[in-house]
Amino acid sequence: MSEPELPNVARSDGRDSAELGRLRLRPAGRAPFIVTGCAGFIGSHLTETLLARGETVVGIDCFTDYYDAAVKVRNVAPSQDDPAFRLVRADLADTELDTLFSDAAGVFHLAAQPGVRSSWGTSFDVYLRRNLLATQRVFEASVASGLRVVYASSSSVYGNANGYPTAETAEPRPVSPYGVTKLACEQLARTYTSEFGLEATGLRYFTVYGPRQRPDMAFSRVIDALARGSRFTLFGTGEQSRDFTFVADAVRATIAAMDADTVSRVYNVGGGTEATLSDTIALVERLSGRQLDLVVQGSAAGDVRRTAADTSLIRDELGWEPEVALPDGLQLQLDSVLDVADVETRLSHG
Ligand code: NAD
Q1: Distance 214 CA to ligand 1 centre (A)
Q2: Structure pTM?
């Protein structure tokens, strides 16, 4: 596969401090936040939100081929226009991180190999490297520079939970190798906290959606099929349900965890709207006014039947709660995709 054209790397700092936000803010010339996975779905939104709040950001990403790297180039492009952003194209699993981290204010660690279905078999070593090894190296460098880390965990650590809504105290029983690597990262965080005093808070995101959602995720695939008039393959009965979280809500939780008085916690980040896949397909059809051409297949190994987050802890300790309801968030995702698709169709016909 040919390498996508990547954006320019080095940029200087020089932002106006007028838009300072809620974070424990530093004066002009202040230390940057590190965002790993800055070209990914959630990381690119987080980066933009931090920049909009007047923070400076060093984004690290190696543009993996889990999905088309050109999509990631587009994700990070808006941040590239901001002089307070610097992109470092590097693999966390083998890059020297101490220098990058030495003058930082804190680390948002979102880089990972996502996806449950592809984590079986021979690709497991990729999950080990991009999830466990990369995270261990981020923790080491953060200890060395005394930085707080907020890292992405996942609802996948629960597997098919014993009860719903599921609280952080529930026994984690992942049903995919991906979930196992995410749980291992949490354990690693605890180890670095107990032995080296690392401040590391993990966020168990529940199915995040919105503009730029990863192309392998269900809403993206549904919307893409609707836009192209192509077939959508449904894995399972459609009755599997998820607690859906709009990306801006996930980003607010992530920043709140960095800004928190509490440290070294694990929090559920769930949008509070549980819906089955069949319900959400019907909703997208209604919102778009288009009909999906559906083909049903057996359920995929690693997919859980249900997720539902008990978010009492993050509400009590961080004052976070989701703000975007599923129909509103889906409409935003739909608009962002269908606008582009319609322009492309008009161009190709005109
Ligand atoms: P994403 O794949 O869009 O983003 C991850 C980014 O990390 C990619 O741009 C990739 O190139 C980069 N990356 C991977 N390995 C790297 C490495 N070794 N060095 C440098 N960069 C590397 O995924 P996303 O959906 O934005 O997820 C972000 C985080 O949230 C991940 O840790 C994921 O496991 C977690 N998460 C996501 C969801 C969700 O619904 N999207 C749910 C639960 C947890």
Answers
A1: 9
A2: 0.91
